[in-house]
């Protein structure tokens, strides 16, 4: 089994949204840490204000299973709307890396 990383980055819609992002990021941490196969999640911001999130999983399959479970939840759309109010999705980049 190989490890699997997701590296997502985005700009904030407004630099004043940083505290809102930090709060949402904590909520994401609380939820994702319970997922089967989850290893770690780190989030930071660079000097230009771009946010980076690196999520590490035991396998791609476990990450995909978690995503399916997450998307099936009734509160999924509300969470995505909240995220979209904070993150500028036009600037988002998502890289998936399988470690072998």
Based on the model shown, name its key terms.
single chain; 100 residues; alpha+beta; Alpha-Beta Plaits; 4-stranded antiparallel beta sheet; 39% helix
Order of helices and strands: EHEEHHE
User: In which range does the helix fraction lie?
Assistant: 25-40%
CATH domain class name: Alpha Beta
- Tertiary shape: globular
Under the CATH scheme, the architecture is 2-Layer Sandwich
Low-confidence stretches: none
Q: Provide the β-strand percentage band.
A: 35-45%
Polypeptide structure, described:
It contains three helices and four strands; from the N terminus they run E-H-E-E-H-H-E. It starts with a strand and ends with a strand. It has helices spanning 18-32, 60-72, 76-86; strands at residues 3-12, 38-45, 50-57, 87-99. A hairpin with a 4-residue loop joins strand 2 (38-45) and strand 3. A four-stranded antiparallel β-sheet has the order 2-3-1-4. 8% of the residues are buried. 39% of the residues lie in helices and 39% in strands. It has 100 residues and is of the alpha+beta class. The protein has one domain: Alpha-Beta Plaits.
